Amino acid sequence: MRKLIALCLLFVPVLSWAAIDTYEFKDEATRERFKQLTFELRCPKCQNQNLQDSNSPIAADLRNEVYKMLTDGSDNDEIVDFMVARYGDFVLYKPPVNKMTYVLWYGPFVLVAVGIVVMLVISRKRKKVSKEGVDLEKQLSEDESQRLKNILDGDRND
Amino acid sequence: MRRLILFIPLAIFLGIGVFLFRGLQLDPTELPSALLNKPFPQFELTSLYEEDKLLTEKALIGEPALVNVWATWCPSCKQEHAQLNRIKAEGYKVIGINYKDDRLKAKIWLEKYLDPYAVNVFDPKGSLGLDLGVYGAPETYVIDQQGVIRYKHVGVVDEKVWAQLKQILDNLQQGKQVALQ
Predict the structure, then answer these.
(1) Alpha-carbon gap: A92 to the closest alpha carbon of chain B (Å)
(2) Pair (A23, A61) in one structural domain
(3) Residue numbers of A between 1 and 30 with CB closer than 8 Å to B
(4) How confident is the model at residue A126 (pLDDT cuts 50, 70, 90)?
(5) Transmembrane segments in this chain: where (chain A) (predicted)?
């Protein structure tokens, strides 16, 4: 019996990770849209949770509002606009592309581009150096080449 | 020139350091209000004191005022209540929105701690709160004489915050006088 209770308790945290409401939907598609919307909209009070996840009263209110709007036949854009009009872009987990968020959206690509340029410059410089090295050897006269060879061979014989 | 290149990592480090250090002082719970410079949302709710008296947004318009979202279940509201009373004593208009609260409890509260509100809107379901983008009481808005929202403060109004709000209210008041002349 004890073991059974312990086993049951084991499942409690798993069950309570998401806020539980009972909403009835007219069809499966609406349920899916509700799920998707509450997943993508952020709870304004509890900063790192979406509406689906949060137990705070404000999140419950907003879930309720999403549900109401869905049953009234609003489309997803209307619901998202409704939330943004009240809570700002903050409620979107996927921020819109505007001049406030250009750095956020395009910054990583700029950094990659800068990295590539730096890499190209460095590798080109290396190539130049190694080419110059080869050229130097060619600049030696016959006599000098012979001496160089003797020195190198002499080293080997030591 | 070569030497200077060696300083690039240091410069990058300093740049990131300054950026992150600034981030430490920012309060992430403060969100920019989406309603700034927009008219006060429309509503039709009862007055806290008179159950059968319907109030609309027109009841708030007329002069620059503070709109304070409060509730008896909110501990910080209690904390700022004395300050609101002082603001009223200074002669400024404070409008209350009783947010998701119990009418009787709210009335008892105002009797006990005095009532700084010129008008008190009873919003039991938080519908006006939703339209205002309230995410945690107390919140205080500054509206101008046309009822346009000019400023939003989330959290307790203490003396420091009031100094700031007062400045905004005074500016609005002056603007009104200029407009009248």
Answers:
(1) 13
(2) yes
(3) none
(4) confident
(5) 103-122
